[in-house]
Amino acid sequence: MASRASTSLSRTASPPSPARARPRPGSRSNTSPTGRRSSAPATRRASAPNTPTRNASCPGSCAARDPASTPTPTPPRRASSSGSCRTHSTRSCRATSPSPTGTTPCATGATRAATPSAPSTRRSSPVPTDVARTAVGRPDLLVAGGGLGGVAAALTAARLGLTVVITEETDWLGGQLTAQAVPSDEHPWIETEHIATSYATLRSRIRDHYRRNYPLTAEASADPTLNPGLGMVSRLCHEPRAAVAVIDELLAPHRSSGRVTVLHHHTPVAAHTEGDRVTAVTFENARDGRRVTFEAPLVVDATELGDLLELADAEHVIGAESRDDTGEPHGAPVADPLDQQAITWCFPLEYRPGESHIVERPPSYDHWRTHTDPFWPGPQLSWDKIDIHTMGARENRVFEDPIDAPTSRDLWHFRRIRALAPFEPGAFDSEITLVNWPNTDYWEAPLIGPGVTAADRARALTRCRELSLSYLHWMQTEQDLPGLRLRPDLVDTDDGLAKSVYIREARRIRARFTVLEQHVAVVDRPEGAGAATFPDSVGVGHYNIDLHPSSSGVSYVNLECYPFQIPLSALIPVRLRNLLPAAKNIGTTHLTNGCYRLHPVEWSIGEAVGALAAHCAAERTEPHAVADSPRATEDLQRLLTGTLGAPVTWPATIRTTRPSQARRNATPLYARPQRRA
């Protein structure tokens, strides 16, 4: 694990250099951003920070009036003087949830102090003298991590005129959609106008990629909702490489203009700080070991595990918070940093009856074949899994219906990424599915947390790989399906597994506001009230609180959620002034990360961060000042909704709709883990 740069400075941290003057994206004059830099010198500095402090009686940053009585802000409204928490009289309240006692609990995080505190006395680390000199010099925005959040942040910032450097550990941008080979998990309204224009563009271009390059039938090509895989998990199941190509296309003009620089195979290894600011980040090239350091006025952590939070010594949370800390009814009885969701090493698979493609028996095969965890119905090398509707055992086989059936709930059809039906007869001789199945979840050990060493992580990743290959070997041999064949060409790897492991949970910032179970879960909300509304919303999303079995031996948690919003205050760290999260590392809890972690939500988080960066550059300000100002927050919201076409509110008819009511024959999900019930 990379260590944090620890060289300290004895001098007082110097104030940040004022940002260059820029056009004002989304300003009140509605001037369109041009990307040209003003020649006038910047003369206005960001407002003095209000350093967060802890409220002894409140574990977090309270956030608003009772949302059940607060109408959805359309357009977003400035917070009124009466919008304080009924329990703690804290002006930083953004949303509330009723409790059984009738009081209004607030979210985990820190409340803002009424007056500025003394300068930070934390150690600072100087920037090395070999600061990178690329085509963009020192970028306006540095994005560590090329997942969906990082890509959205970089793309948005570049569209609004900023120069951006984005780094990625692999040679594929796209994170969970590409390098981790996970087809999109999306909500019932994904094909409507109520999603971000940029995410809709990503999806439509993936479909166009198939129309241009694949031998589709005339009917499939003309279908505006083309689904190449006809998978059940999403209305758009496709090969990972298709999304890679589209992401490269979206970034191409910005890379050509020099506004965006992409560095593949680069991992952050050190963050350099002065006081409460990240001044630079050092990356290492995995191919040759060389290191490069970038300075930037704003830095984004879009890594899969929230690596910059640790490297920059940012206040953050790992694992499960306690029920006492958050007030969440389904929270852990005791805080446990090692209670982290399972990881999965996914892989594409085709089936060729009559052929034999048996993989080598992995070293740990016998363990997975015989070992049974207390919460699981049997060994993982079986067809038995947990039914999250009943929390009892249920058999789920790879083939329960004919392989060419248009729909089925068996494993093959659930994440199928290439069906035969959409393509010309004879174009392909096999279908392809993506294996991300319950029995391939690896929950034996966490990747991060207290006491977890680099060797521990390496062992966990090795065991995770072996579990996936063991499951394939078991199906091929003991279930007499030798025709199951890996497709390494579809993920561009030697062994046929995805480039990266699928990570569901990361370090999470201690934010000014933390989204709780009580804000989004149907079971915790007044009947028909919908999710909590946030006046500072910068995006929308939906997914159930979906927690896979954890490394602490906790089984599934699955709570139905209302469509929700993404509050700006959940993107603002309690202390660091210029570090922003843009992945699974925002101000959520162990529970609510389970609904904010999926593809379209991560994209919207990244888009909001990119827009915030552009707004800060144009206004010569910083994220904390934007969050402090209702007027500046409204300007940011206008930039998102107007210039970018990214909604920040749901229509009332959707906001108060349970997803189980929006899907035909859907069953509400409500799983209580045995250890937490």
UniProtKB/TrEMBL annotation:
Pfam families associated with the record: FAD_oxidored (PF12831)
Gene3D superfamilies named among the record's database cross-references: FAD/NAD(P)-binding domain
Stretches for region Disordered: 1-132, 657-677
InterPro entries (alphabetical): FAD/NAD-bd_sf, NadB
Origin superkingdom: Bacteria
An example molecular function term from Gene Ontology annotations: L-aspartate oxidase activity
Biased composition (Polar residues): 83-93
GO biological process, one term: NAD+ biosynthetic process
Residue ranges, compositional bias (Low complexity): 1-14, 36-54, 94-129
PANTHER family noted in UniProt: L-ASPARTATE OXIDASE, SLL0471 PROTEIN
Listed name of the protein: FAD-dependent oxidoreductase
Organism classification: Bacteria, Bacillati, Actinomycetota, Actinomycetes, Kitasatosporales
